[in-house]
Design brief:
Order of helices and strands: HHHHEEHHEE
Strand content: 5-15%
Number of helices: 6
Radius of gyration: 24 Å
Shape: elongated
Distance between the termini: 39 Å
Strand order of the largest sheet: 1-2
Helix content: 40-55%
Structural class: alpha+beta
Number of strands: 4
Length: 216
């Protein structure tokens, strides 16, 4: 193996600019869509006897949250709908997923999840044993899951069409940068303990660092 083959790549960040911020926004949407795609992939591969069958509903919920997050108002990025139009043939599926998120996933309002108060009685004596609750939860049918996966794939393709020209412009910027500038642009990680975990933090549109939390 020669020196070129053994050399590890150097990861650097692009300087702040309108294109860099646009690339960050679009790539952030792509990351959310990929999360949704991966979750649905596990759902569609899970058979009846698969351990994942018991968590299909939760994986679908995660996919719905990740997908819809791209189209909701945010203080740190522009909604994806400002950059692309959902294909007309998939708009019904798009609206179904948004309604499912609003009524069932984000808020417990839909009749897809219903809780009944029940009494458990002895079958012979009919004496009451205890009172409990039974929750019946339904999720997306397989046919709609398949349509949802098709929708995510189509939206990712449209996003790539917007993202690729921005990527090429940024690549040109890096090709004209000197070695010293590239060395100075390496991303920075900040390590903190779990006791300092801050779920209410707000990221910048052009991040300068990221935080990693450790238990010990």
């Amino acid at each position: 193996m020669d020196d070129l083959e053994a050399r590890s790549p150097l990861i650097v960040t692009v300087d702040d600019s309108p294109d860099a911020r646009l690339f960050i926004e679009l790539s952030s949407h792509a990351a959310d869509l990929t999360e949704a795609k991966d979750a649905l992939g596990w759902v569609m591969r899970a058979g009846l006897d698969d351990p994942l069958a018991g968590v299909k509903r939760h994986l679908i919920g995660a996919a719905v949250v990740s997908y819809c997050r791209c189209f909701l108002h945010s203080k740190v990025r522009t909604p994806l709908g400002d950059y692309i139009d959902v294909p007309e043939g998939l708009s019904r599926t798009h609206e179904t997923i948004r309604a499912f998120r609003n009524q069932t996933i984000a808020h417990s309002q839909s009749e897809l999840t219903v809780t009944y108060p029940v009494g458990v009685v002895d079958a012979e004596t009919m004496e009451l044993q205890f009172v409990s609750a039974v929750t019946v939860a339904s999720t997306l049918p397989d046919s709609i899951v398949n349509d949802f996966a098709t929708l995510i794939g189509a939206v990712l393709d449209l996003l790539d069409d917007v993202l690729n020209p921005v990527r090429r412009r940024l690549e040109q910027v890096l090709r004209t940068a000197g070695p010293e500038a590239l060395e100075a642009a390496a991303p920075r990680g900040i390590e903190k303990m779990a006791a300092d975990f801050r779920p209410r933090s707000k990221r910048a549109r052009y991040p300068m660092a990221h935080t990693l939390y450790w238990d010990r």
